[in-house]
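re: ur question from yesterday

yeah so i grabbed the chain u mentioned. its 196 aa long if i counted rite. heres the sequnce exactly as i have it in my notes:
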Amino acid sequence: MSLRSLTQPSDSNWNVPNGLSLVRLILAIAVGVLIELHLYLPALICFVIAASTDFIDGWWARRYKQITKLGRILDPFVDKTIIGAAMIALVGVPGSGIAAWIVTLVISRELLVTSLRGLIEGAGGDFSAKQLGKWKMVAQCAAVITSLLNLLQPEPVQWLQWALILSLISAVILTLLSGWEYVVVATKSLSQQPTA
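ran it thru and got these structure tokens back, copy pasting raw so excuse formatting
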């Protein structure tokens, strides 16, 4: 298979963006397993690779016109799995700083937004990602990374502990704000749809 064939416009589900999403999904699952095994450095490496390559599949799909329905579902699903797997595993680790209520808030927001997206897009509306949601993902990733970095230290490091606290506060605030933004968008979209 040549590079040229990989960059041809296509509506096939067997393309580079979806392949990258599947690799990221495998890495996300690996992160959860590695944290459970207390292998924090490999978990950190897998998490950083999975999270930092998030933009590549989206960029590739747009650049080479390889956007598919599967990709529109798979990409956000993988993003949620990356964060969910890491945070759920970290809840069970003493000293991780990740509290169960934070993970419950994060997952509840994701379930709500996913449900609203299915409702709006199923009715033919637009429910594309918002900038606030992207910043929410950045803050959540920062919280996971700083948590893992803290766990790698033999002794507490004050600046890392403060970084974890700040990233968690940012993640919680942005999770709430972005969730509310999607609720407002969904409410407006549903109110404009004709009733049967």
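noticed a couple things. The longest helix spans residues 158-192. also The mean pLDDT is 86.
anyway ttyl
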